[in-house]
Write a structure and sequence with these properties.
1894 residues; five-stranded antiparallel beta sheet
Length: 1894
């Protein structure tokens, strides 16, 4: 009843079914009407619209197969289909292969792989990385998923694995096996440095060259079976491999069918015959040899055989087969080709012969090293043995040819076995194998028109494999039911044991074949008769063809196969002429002898003997003494194959098998073409359909309770939903499905019978359809009402606007009427006003003429009077000037005489004073330049005076000319007076003329009216013309505007184009920079990896040696430490310590590093020698300089005169400078006297302050010069004193004896030489060893002073030495006291001078401007004169010596002056800042305070300033022996958590830098270098030890960056010191430039950053897929699709699933940790950007590899998750860090899942939207798009083709997946610290008490 109800519900109108079809196997049809139970036929409509009647089988009444719902079509797993039958499987494979371009599909535990006959980009390293670590069901089907499953099961279950790859020839078995091995090699790596994984992969091209050939079905068909065991160690890394081969097709060597080829290696040799090394092989084209031309297809399209040979030779080399062996192999192969061309002719009917000197046989004999006569003899003869005699029998031509071919096959088989043996030797390892994964690449079931012995063996092997497969599938099904604790019954499946018994059992086919081979006269016919007699009536699987007596038929599991008996016996025997073998054994060719060395040994049944290859042939044993025994033990090919197959089955049964079934979609090698008939044949043959049948017999559909609840929640009512999901599902199923046998409840899953999921899906679809109809009804009602309301509102609006228009028209009419009235009023008023104005204008004209006449008369009278006054003025002025000029000339002459007299007196006085100005010269450094400048200025003034005098002469000339002109003007005026009298008489005549003009005026007025009328007319015409011109102008302007707009648009377009080009170029430059930076950082990563590998190797070597060296410590010999060790080279190094360090380092290094260090030592020694030579050259130069100084001393007197002139020029320059400064001050004070400019901040106050500061600075400079000169004088005195007292080295013998080694003595010698530049020390260069011997010779060895009073003599010598030292000490003490007293006196003088300067400045401010200049100049001259006199009085001799020294040090002083000028400029800038601060302070001062202007009047008293305590300089002092303790406590044993929480960020970096500053302060380069090297190596060590701890890596990344910033900030570079405080600038490094160390530390920071990213990636990688894709953040949006997915083997124990919230919490934890550690904000942004890139890349890659995730609802889920990530960025203030842009590909992929995908407009929108996705990614997503509900539609193939067409012009990478390992290049922007180093306190918790603050 239930069944009928279900049938009635499913077989209804529009239901779709499958019906058989002769051409396509199965055809889809749709029911036209409902099916009623008991009807004999169905009314169906085909897809082309044709209606047919499908009659049911009258016996079985079986209905046709139902089609699965569309949402189930294209599933990853065939067992997930609701209806499991042949048409459903075939259709699912076809849809995936043709529509989605997916070649892999699961079928339970089997991976079905369809050959696409096209290269697909799905096997790259990125795909391997994507599948690595994933469960088998999590990703789309792939060969990598099967390989990963095998690898993880091996690691988890500690059980060996096998991957069985089978299929027809051309189905892709070899390629699949190759990709599986590549996956293992990539994922696992190798356990040694021998690159075993590369060797494993290198075996593929070798085996393909010698074992693959072109067939009609496949261009690279494997003609042998192979089983490769890839061995792994206990850490699951590849350690080696072993290969077994099966049943090589030897017949292909001598025969090929049409369109086929021999083995590839022959054609590769022929294609490379032109190479020089192959000349002796005598090869030519492949068409010239019989063995390579029979198939008439010597070339494979798209394959270059010469390049393939290069690949093969490279693989041989990689596997350790050297060049000589390779040439030997090619020599044997060439010999086989020549042997095939040996022509055998008939001699008679029973014998044959070979023509003499056959060139091919000759070539064969030469290549293999045998004699021509023997080989030609035994090619045409054979030896027969009887009991007593031996006969030589000639062979007919046919038998001789067969013997020749047999020999060729035998040689090739031997060569094949030898290569396999050596490949295995190359892949073998000494490491113990822990487990292995076997890859079986074996032939599939074959059936041809003619099937022979090879097909029989192949099908026999497939029977055995199919039996093992069936048992394994049944076992897995049974385990699943038992694990879920559901009742189960035995499933009936096909058991092919009877067929196997028919073949291999006693008296089976193989036994009968071996028995027939032993018969003397056995034949194929007799063997066939035995088969008929034995099995024809007893076994139903054995049949006899009707029309043949030499064939038999076996019913295999896949199909019936007819085998032809011809050739079975010969192929089973595999015989070859023994005499031919003996000839080859006698060869002189070593390789050939090696091939046949084990010929006497029989092949082992187990195939263990090396060199047997695939155990596929019989070994020949020609030993005469063992003929009978060899015959008894000789095994046939069938026996060998059965034994090897039995061994293979035992191996497979001992492993966990994984199955890959390769399907050939068509026989024409067309890309993505699917032939249903061929596919069905192979599916039946490979056991896929049997798997489907077993699954369908049980419960194929399996859902977890949560999945079922999520999917079918819509079928439940609210009251049905309980807290217990399991109980809820049980209750719902009992209501929906009444038949309890249709489902079973397991512990974690619900099991459904076939078809039940489709039934539930139909119920769900009906429910959703009803809900959709109701929603549509409501929506349409709402839309209709909304439309009605919109129309009603529109009508009301129209009425309102109409009434408004009418009202506006009425108002307009009223306004116009009122306007007309107003116009009339104003027009009348205008006309009246015009008439009045005409009358008024006539009256005013008359008045104007009369008044003008009277005014002119009055003007003429005034003019005459004025000119007379001017004449009088000029005459009187000229007379007065003449008198004044005479008086002035007399006064000037008198003044000149008086001034000349005074100047002579002053000159005499200055000459006296100039003789004593030598002391002034010492006190004023750089005065000579100033004097020369003053001289130039005087010359310029003389030039100006000459110009002024010339100008004065020109003015006098112009004055005289002007006087003459005035005289002529006076005469002219007198003449004018006479003219005026004459003009009076003319007035009367003019009056008469006026009357006449009045008359003419009236006539003219009349003419004017006429002209005005004409002008009016003309004006009107002109106005009309102007209006027309205006119109034209307007048109032209419009055109002009249009043209301007067009030009602007074009210019704007050009500008935009240029801007875009600039932007693109900028982006390209940025991209190039990032690529270069990324390349550099990748090199650093590789460098670090090699360092770690090198360290690991050293540790392994140390452990393997087991030799402990007390007191020896391994030294880190990484490249970066070496680089840091030798980055900074000081001038002098400690030779002994350096040599010891090099010895210690060399012990732990390899040979290459030792050579590098030796080279470096040589360079240092050469540098030392060059420095020594340079030192000697300097000493010679100093001697020559001293000689020149003596010569110059004689000329010192002549230099005094020059110095006096320079001094005078300097005084004049100072005078002019003071004049200028005082003038500026006077001008400022006088100009602002009224406004009270004396207040602080006013210009006068600023000028005063500048003058004061300038005076103070000059005073300081003078004091410094005094101190420098005096110190030089003192040093010269001490040098002379030392020269006298240090004539004997015995004084310092005691001190020298305390020095430890030559390095310290050399350092002391250099310091003495630098400080005491005297002839006694510089007369000749001293070697360190000589100096050591000379200094120590004065102190005899005390151990030898034991006789004749020598001890007393030593005592006396010591007393004398002590007296000398005491005398020297007393003299030094006296000198020190004298210097102290002199310095105190100078200090008092400076204070008095300061007071005098201040008083003088105050007095000068009160004097008038002219007096100020003279007073200042006089005071300066007096001061300098007094100082010179004092200096001369104190020490005249020292004055002369100082004068000479000044001339010698002139250049040095000039350099110091330039440095001081730069310092002055800096101080001036600071002075401006202080002036501003003073002005701000003055503004807030109270009225009672005294202004600076008042304070200068008061006397200034010296103030005693108390000395402040010494401030800390921000340095930390430590002892050399405490360095390791410092590194240990501060780096190696420091816990980041405590430091980050309790102390300031970056404290370790600050402490290390403060220690470094102290070493720099001491100028100790050795200490600087060792500290930096220890720091770098310790950081590397702690990162290697705890590199997986994010907190540790983040902590040291922050501190390394801070240390790097400190090195930059305090380097003294102006670029980095801009933001420093003055105090921080004082803390800059002074002695060492650590720029190279900064680069080393920057590289270290890059490595730490990359390690940090790896930590982040390792943590996030497990969360991303769960959080971004699988977890439903929005509940109910992404309904679970009924996949029925079976988690085949959860390779890793199921963990708690991650959510988006947990991932965000992890990101927040990362961010907070970095913030606590004080990481730079810019660096945090880069880390966050990298984190988001990893999230986006991993999510997108999984999306591209998971068909079940490509749906509309999943797109919505992804977009919501991305918005949550953006919200996290917004909360952290990181929106501008570029992290959002890294998610753009993922965002666009989510949008692509949600947009419409139907029309061309949609395609255009997709192309413009998905600019961040590549074409392959877009097409992949569209191909994978899978509807979750029936209301969604699949993407059509035509739409995908449209997308591909539109995107074909894109230039982009063809890579499918994003590179998740890509790390953006990191930068470290300079981030100076505002923290003052002297304020840093060291906490006691760090245990750094041995550090001392300085």
């Amino acid at each position: 009843m239930n069944m009928n109800r279900e049938l009635e519900y499913m077989f209804v109108e529009s239901a779709r079914v499958w019906i058989p079809d002769a051409e396509e196997e199965w055809k889809s049809a749709e029911l036209v009407k409902d099916y009623k139970n008991g009807e004999a036929s169905l009314q169906l409509m085909l897809e082309d619209g044709k209606v047919i009647e499908h009659k049911l089988d009258p016996k079985t009444k079986n209905l046709p197969y139902l089609r699965n719902p569309d949402i189930l079509v294209g599933e990853n797993d065939l067992t997930a289909l609701s209806y499991l039958h042949e048409p459903a499987v075939l259709h699912n494979l076809k849809v995936r292969f043709i529509d989605s371009k997916l070649i892999y599909t699961y079928c339970g535990i089997v991976l079905v792989a369809i050959n696409p006959y096209e290269n697909l980009p799905i096997y790259g390293t990125d795909i391997i990385n994507a599948y690595s670590g994933q469960n088998m069901g999590d990703m789309d089907p792939h060969i990598f998923a099967v390989a990963e499953e095998a690898y993880k099961q091996m690691a988890r279950d500690e059980r060996n694995q096998s991957i069985i790859v089978s299929g027809e020839s051309g189905a892709g078995k070899t390629v699949s096996a190759k990709y599986a091995m590549r996956y293992f090699a990539t994922v696992s790596g190798s356990a040694s440095e021998a690159n075993v994984e590369e060797k494993v992969l290198a075996s593929n091209p070798i085996m393909e060259a010698i074992g693959n050939a072109k067939t009609t079905r496949n261009d690279n068909s494997s003609r042998f079976g192979k089983y490769i065991e890839i061995g792994f160690d206990n850490r699951y890394r590849i350690i080696g491999a072993n290969m077994r081969t099966y049943l090589l097709e030897k017949s292909r060597v001598v025969f090929q069918a049409d369109e086929e080829r021999n083995y590839h290696v022959f054609y590769q040799l022929c294609a490379s015959a032109h190479l020089p090394e192959f000349k002796n092989l005598r090869l030519s084209s492949a068409n010239d040899f019989l063995y390579t031309r029979q198939g008439r297809s010597p070339v494979i399209e798209g394959v270059d055989d010469s390049k393939e040979l290069c690949t093969t030779r490279h693989a041989f080399t990689l596997l350790g087969i050297n060049e000589s062996y390779q040439m030997g192999l090619f020599q044997v192969l060439a010999a086989i080709l020549h042997l095939g061309n040996v022509e055998i002719k008939d001699r008679d009917a029973d014998s044959s012969l070979i023509a003499p000197n056959n060139r091919h046989l000759t070539a064969f004999c030469e290549l293999v090293g045998v004699t021509y006569q023997d080989m030609s003899q035994w090619l045409c003869h054979r030896k027969l043995k009887t009991a007593n005699e031996t006969y030589v029998k000639p062979l007919p031509r046919l038998q001789a040819t067969n013997a020749r071919d047999a020999l060729s096959k035998h040689i090739y088989a031997k060569l094949f076995s030898w290569i396999v043996e050596h490949v295995n030797k190359a892949l073998v390892t000494n490491v113990k194998q822990h487990s292995f994964i076997g890859v079986l690449d074996i032939y599939g079931f074959e059936t041809f028109e003619i099937n022979s012995f090879e097909q029989f063996c192949i099908n026999y092997a497939n029977e055995k494999l199919q039996q093992q497969f069936n048992m394994h599938v049944f076992k897995l099904e049974q385990e699943e039911y038992m694990r879920e604790q559901i009742p189960w019954t035995l499933i009936d499946f096909y058991d092919n044991q009877p067929c196997i018994n028919l073949i291999e059992a006693k008296m089976g086919i193989l036994d009968l074949l071996d028995e027939e081979c032993k018969m003397p006269k056995g034949s194929d016919d007799s063997w066939a008769q035995k088969l008929y007699n034995t099995h024809l009536k007893t076994c139903s699987l054995f049949e006899k063809p009707r029309m043949s007596n030499r064939a038999f038929i076996i019913q295999h599991f896949a199909d019936k196969v007819e085998y032809q008996c011809e050739g079975f016996l010969e192929k089973n025997k595999d015989t070859v002429n023994a005499e031919q073998i003996n000839v080859l054994k006698a060869s002189k060719f070593d390789l050939l002898m090696e091939l046949f060395r084990d010929e006497e040994k029989a092949t082992s049944p187990t195939g263990q003997t090396p060199g047997t290859g695939g155990r596929t042939r019989l070994s020949i044993k020609p030993d005469k003494g063992r003929d009978s025994s060899s015959k008894e033990h000789k095994k046939t090919v069938g026996c060998q194959f059965r034994n090897s197959l039995q061994m293979l089955m035992e191996t497979l049964n001992a492993t966990t098998p994984h199955y890959v079934r390769c399907i050939k979609p068509n026989d024409f090698k067309l890309a993505f073409s699917f032939d249903p008939k061929r596919a069905v044949q192979q599916l039946r043959a490979c056991g896929v359909l049997e798997t489907i049948r077993i699954s369908a017999a049980g419960f194929p559909s399996r859902w977890t309770y949560q999945e079922f609840f999520s999917r079918y929640r819509v079928l439940m009512k609210q009251k049905d939903v309980l807290a217990d999901k399991k109980l809820t599902c049980r209750n719902v199923l009992e209501k929906l499905v009444e038949d309890q046998d249709k489902y079973q409840f397991g512990k974690t899953k619900i099991f459904f019978r076939a078809g039940q999921v489709a039934y539930l899906e139909k119920l769900r679809a009906d429910k959703l359809r009803a809900a959709c109809i109701r929603i549509q009804k409501t929506i349409r009602c709402w839309l209709a009402r909304k439309k009605y309301l919109r129309m009603r509102n529109a009508a009301i609006t129209i009425q309102r606007f109409t009434r408004g228009y009418q009202a506006r028209c009425l108002a307009k009419f009223m306004r116009r009427t009122q306007a007309a009235t107003i116009i009339q009023k104003y027009q009348r008023m205008c006309m009246e006003r015009k008439r009045y104005r005409q009358k008024q204008a006539a009256a005013l004209a008359m008045q104007t003429i009369l008044r003008a006449y009277m005014a002119r008369q009055k003007y003429q009278a005034l003019l005459r009077e004025h000119k007379a006054v001017i004449i009088q003025k000029f005459i009187r002025g000229w007379l007065a000037r003449c008198w004044y000029k005479r008086c002035l000339e007399a006064i000037v002459y008198l003044q000149c005489c008086i001034r000349r007299m005074r100047a002579k007196r002053e000159l005499k006085k200055l000459k006296i004073e100039a003789r004593s100005v030598e002391h002034f010269k010492k006190l004023n450094k750089g005065m000579e330049n100033k004097i020369m400048q003053l001289q130039r200025k005087i010359d310029e003034q003389h030039k100006d005076n000459r110009l002024v005098s010339e100008k004065l002469v020109s003015l006098e000339n112009s004055y005289s000319a002007e006087s003459e002109r005035m005289r002529s003007e006076l005469n002219r005026l007198r003449g004018a007076e006479e003219d005026a009298k004459n003009k009076t008489n003319q007035v009367l005549s003019l009056r008469e003329e006026l009357e006449r003009l009045k008359k003419e005026l009236s006539a003219t007025q009349q003419e004017k009216k006429t002209i005005e009328e004409w002008a009016q007319t003309y004006r009107q015409e002109m106005e009309k013309m102007v209006s027309e011109l205006k119109d034209q102008n307007g048109t032209l302007k419009k055109e002009k505007d249009d043209l301007n707009r067009l030009i602007q648009e074009q210019s704007q377009q050009m500008t935009e184009k240029m801007a875009r080009a600039i932007v693109l170029e900028t982006q390209q430059l940025e991209t190039d920079l990032n690529e270069e930076r990324s390349r550099y950082q990748n090199l650093l990563t590789e460098h670090r990896r090699l360092e770690e590998k090198y360290d690991d190797l050293k540790e392994e070597m140390a452990l393997s040696s087991n030799v402990s060296k007390p007191g020896h410590r391994r030294t880190d010999s990484t490249h970066s430490s070496n680089e840091s060790e030798y980055t900074y080279n000081s001038e002098y190094t400690d030779l002994e310590d350096g040599s010891r360090a090099r010895e210690d380092v060399t012990r732990g290094m390899d040979t290459s590093l030792t050579l590098k260090l030796q080279k470096r030592v040589t360079e240092l020694e050469q540098e030392k020698q060059s420095l020594r030579n340079e030192l000697e050259n300097k000493e010679d130069q100093f001697q020559r300089a001293r000689a020149r100084d003596d010569a110059e001393f004689k000329k010192a007197r002549g230099a005094e005169l020059e110095y006096e002139s320079l001094k005078r020029q300097e005084l004049e320059s100072e005078n002019k400078k003071l004049k200028h400064d005082l003038a500026a001050m006077r001008k400022s004070l006088l100009g602002d006297a009224v406004t009270g400019a004396g207040a602080p901040g006013s210009p006068a106050y600023k000028v005063l302050l500048d003058q004061l500061n300038a005076s103070c600075e000059e005073l300081e400079v003078r004091k410094e010069e005094v101190l420098i000169l005096r110190s030089q004088l003192v040093s010269q005195k001490e040098a002379m004193h030392h020269k006298e007292t240090m004539t004997e080295p015995s004084v310092f013998a005691e001190d020298v004896s305390k020095l430890k080694d030559a390095g310290e003595i050399k350092q002391a010698y250099i310091s003495l030489k630098d400080t005491n530049r005297s002839p006694g020390f510089t007369s000749q260069p001293l070697d360190v060893g000589d100096l050591l011997s000379r200094l120590r010779s004065a102190a005899p060895d005390l151990h030898k002073l034991n006789e004749d009073g020598e001890l007393w003599l030593v005592n006396q010598g010591l007393k004398e030495t002590i007296r000398l030292l005491e005398h020297q000490l007393q003299s030094q003490r006296r000198t020190y006291d004298n210097e102290v007293e002199s310095l105190r006196g100078e200090l008092q003088n400076v204070k008095e001078e300061n007071n005098r300067q201040q008083q003088l400045l105050a007095q000068n401010l009160q004097l008038p401007p002219e007096a100020r200049i003279e007073a200042s100049l006089q005071h300066e001259i007096t001061r300098l004169t007094n100082e010179n006199l004092e200096l001369m009085a104190d020490d005249p001799t020292a004055s002369q010596e100082a004068r000479v020294n000044i001339l010698r040090r002139m250049v040095d002083l000039m350099e110091q002056l330039e440095k001081q000028d730069r310092t002055i400029r800096k101080l001036k800038k600071q002075l401006k800042v202080y002036s501003k601060r003073i002005g701000e302070m003055g503004a807030v001062q109270t009225e009672g305070q005294t202004s600076p202007g008042q304070m200068v009047d008061e006397p200034i008293h010296p103030v005693n300033i108390a000395r402040r305590e010494k401030d800390f300089q921000g340095m930390l002092e430590y002892k050399k022996e405490d360095e390791m303790k410092l590194v240990k406590n501060l780096i190696l044993e420091l816990k980041p958590r405590g430091v980050a929480v309790n102390l300031i960020p970056g404290l370790p970096a600050y402490i290390l830098f403060m220690c470094l500053r102290h070493a720099d302060y001491l100028n100790d380069d050795q200490k600087v270098r060792t500290l930096l090297t220890s720091t770098i190596n310790s950081i590397k060590k702690i990162l290697k030890k705890r590199g997986e701890d994010f907190e540790t890596v983040s902590f040291w990344l922050s501190n390394t960056c801070r240390f790097l910033h400190c090195l930059k900030q305090y380097s003294g570079d102006e670029t980095f010191a801009k933001l420093n405080t003055p105090r921080q600038n004082e803390h800059c490094l002074t002695n060492f430039d650590l720029a190279e160390y900064r680069q080393v530390i920057s590289d270290l920071a890059i490595q730490i950053y990359q390690q940090l990213i790896k930590c982040i990636e390792g943590t996030l990688h497990a969360m991303i897929v769960y959080g971004m894709l699988e977890h439903e953040t929005i509940q109910g949006v992404s309904g679970v699709k009924p996949t029925g997915l079976r988690k085949r083997t959860a390779s890793i124990a199921e963990e708690d699933t991650y959510t988006l919230e947990s991932m965000l919490r992890q990101l927040s934890a990362f961010h907070s940790t970095m913030c606590q550690h004080g990481t730079d904000p810019e660096l945090i942004k880069q880390v966050v950007k990298q984190e988001f890139y990893i999230i986006g890349a991993v999510t997108l890659n999984n999306l591209l590899l998971r068909k079940d995730m490509c749906s509309w609802s999943k797109g919505m889920q992804i977009r919501y998750n991305v918005s949550q990530l953006e919200e996290w960025l917004r909360d952290k203030g990181l929106m501008n860090c570029g992290a959002k842009e890294t998610l753009e590909p993922l965002i666009q992929a989510a949008q692509l899942l949600q947009v419409k995908k139907k029309t061309d407009e949609d395609a255009e929108a997709i192309c413009s939207m998905c600019h961040a996705l590549t074409t392959s990614q877009i097409v992949r997503i569209l191909n994978l798009y899978t509807p979750v509900n029936e209301f969604e539609e699949r993407v059509s193939i035509a739409f995908i083709r449209t997308i591909q067409t539109r995107l074909r012009d894109r230039s982009e990478s063809p890579q499918l997946l994003m590179d998740t390992k890509m790390i953006y290049p990191v930068t470290f922007p300079f981030n100076p610290s505002s923290l003052a180093l002297e304020t840093i306190q060291i906490p006691s918790s760090l245990n750094l008490g041995f550090l001392t603050r300085v």
